[in-house]
């Protein structure tokens, strides 16, 4: 017997390539008796886990009564009173934010069937923050649903994992992502394929690469520069270039938004454009600026992390060539250089560099100075030995 086709309508219209997950959540939302009140949606960056979480939240809150579409649109826009969402743009989720979520979780739904708490990037919770959520996840009120999102269940504490139902999203193929990028942007299919491959199937990053030639050029320049590292002097120079490029990228992504937020806050506080900020409201402006600084730090770290992901793909390709496999290279445009590197290096040296990239990522998560962490990593690239 064939299963019924999935209808991709509101709220599922923006969920792409996850038919099995959509079917599972649709079934859960339609059968309150089998509902689980704490979910963990996992998937690689760009797989759509947050999009799916909000679609599920919309369906849970709206139910099947009158005005369903209107309620769903409110939820998807983030304006429904029964939705509480935490989208942290800092390095970590604070205990204060976690406590606020727990407090909200004990409120009864005001209009919808359920109160839904969505936590994006739940992997950014420290152990102490995770412990704040434990009891609320274990014994939530009857009509409260928690939806956590993270790259993998391994990114959360075992005590959290034991209290949630995990839904793992599939990793899309390069060809699938390329087709989606063509549909969304109209770019040349060859550019879309290259971008999807270089982004390692991360949909958002693939779209950015496909529509921004400067981003593609900058990526290639950084990888070629790293391939040319021969000593400590090169390591210092290239580390500085990577941090500078990530800093400029972060500023470009946040500057316009920061200014708009500040202008909006000042209008709300009744401060005329161009006027000095009165002492009475300076605290609120300072609080906004502090939040923007935390967001800028996260954006910088994310930019450097993206470079580390690109470097992992570079040395992954090198290792593949050392094993005699050349049919699934990510960085095909650099194949000639990678073949030369694969011939010059031992497999052990390549593995040492890959291990050091992983260690660098971990060190940055623990607030290591970006330039120093990258310098250390690039010295390993130059020497084949950890400092």
Query: Major sheet, described briefly?
Result: 5 strands, parallel
**Strand coverage percent:** 5-15%
Side by side, the strands of the main sheet go 2-3-4-1-5
- Write down the Rg: 23 Å
Estimated structural class: alpha/beta
Amino-to-carboxy terminus distance:
61 Å
Which word captures the global form? globular
Tally of separate helices: 15
Question: Uncertain regions: pLDDT < 50 for 5+ in a row?
Answer: 1-8
The chain-level mean pLDDT equals 87
| DSSP E strands, number | 5
Quickly count the domains: 3
Order of helices and strands: HEHHEHEHEHEHHHHHHHHH
Q: Portion of residues in helices?
A: 55-70%
What attributes characterize this protein structure?
387 residues; alpha/beta; Rossmann fold; 3 domains; 5 strands; 60% helix; globular; disordered N terminus
Write the layout of secondary structure elements.
Layout: H1 19-30, E1 38-42, H2 49-62, H3 68-77, E2 83-86, H4 95-105, E3 115-119, H5 127-138, E4 144-150, H6 158-161, E5 165-168, H7 174-185, H8 189-198, H9 203-211, H10 213-227, H11 232-268, H12 279-322, H13 335-344, H14 347-365, H15 370-383
Parallel strand pairs: 1-4, 1-5, 2-3, 3-4
Helix pairs in contact: 1-2, 2-3, 4-5, 7-8, 7-9, 8-9, 9-10, 10-11, 10-12, 11-12, 11-15, 12-13, 12-14, 14-15
Could you describe the 3D structure shown?
The protein has 387 residues and is α/β, with parallel strands linked by helices. The chain has three domains: 150 residues, P-loop containing nucleotide triphosphate hydrolases (Rossmann fold, 3-Layer(aba) Sandwich); 54 residues; 152 residues, no CATH class. 60% of the residues lie in helices and 6% in strands. Strand 3, helix 5 and strand 4 form a beta-alpha-beta unit. Helix 1 runs parallel beside helix 2, helix 8 crosses helix 9 and helix 10 crosses helix 12. It starts with 18 loop residues before the first helix and ends with a helix.
